[in-house]
Amino acid sequence: MRWYVANDVCEALDIHNSRDAVSRLDADERRMITMDTPGGPQKMNAVSLPGIYRLIFSSRKGTAKEYQRWVTHDVLPLVSQDSRHEIAVDSVGKQLDDLKDLLMQSGVVKPFVNPRYTFDNLMSRYIGAVPGNRPRDFYDAIGEWFGITVPYSSAINITVKEWLLEHVPMEVMTEFVVGIESKTIIRSQTGRWVSLNGVFGNTVEWERIKKEFGHKCAYCGKEHVALIPEHLVPQSVMAKVSPERVDLIENIVPACTDCNGAKGLIPLSDWYPKHPGYTKARLRKIQEHFRKYHLK
């Protein structure tokens, strides 16, 4: 997924308070990226393309209003007519592509690409930051962080480097290595890489959690439903004991809205055994998740 510097996007849309605007986006529509500046590497807010579309609706700029009117007056009424639904989908796709091109051509909205960070450069920096590691360790670390298994079979007909470049965005690799160098990404007690910025500080860990739980609710096993980050130890409780761990991956599992609402502030040990969806297998999965990512 491409990411765009939030300040540039908001400037193009005449949105003056970019931080406030970005904070209202969903977790998978925003993230922090690291960019080189004259003063050194700096973290900046970034938004995805869906995030840009949502920001457009908070803009008062003329071109943005035209887009808003097109969606509310043309697209939505068209989609509501079943007989013309396919036409609407095609129309939406074309219009969004046109809008994307317009934003990119403006020269203000630019995807996050840092030319200083090449694959070989990142691998060298990773090996320098993690003594004793070799190129294969870097490949495996990138695969683990992104939640994929790196193939080493000759059957793939391309090098591992080429395969990784095809499957893992360069900005993800960059943030991973920079995080290790800055010690904001460290190993858990089982050797897994964990971001100290928490799940809400990056989309990679959240996507990996959902994948590890089979894109199902950790508590009831429902699938094909909206999943939200659920705190195993309630935020208010963890904040009093260990505030820096509130949003860490060890304390987050995917949950459906029903389970999230039902659990509330009740401790897991008191609530889950009485839950209709309780199974020993699901409880073990949750416990294994905690142990795997728990920091020392």
TrEMBL record:
InterPro entries: BRO_N_domain, HNH
Keywords, ordered alphabetically: Plasmid
Molecular function in Gene Ontology: endonuclease activity; nucleic acid binding; zinc ion binding
Domain of life: Bacteria
Coiled-coil residue windows: none
Matching Pfam families: Bro-N, HNH
Residues covered by the Bro-N domain: 1-83
Protein name stated in the entry: Putative phage antirepressor
The organism of origin for this protein: Selenomonas ruminantium subsp. lactilytica (strain NBRC 103574 / TAM6421)
Biological classification of the source: Bacteria, Bacillati, Bacillota, Negativicutes, Selenomonadales
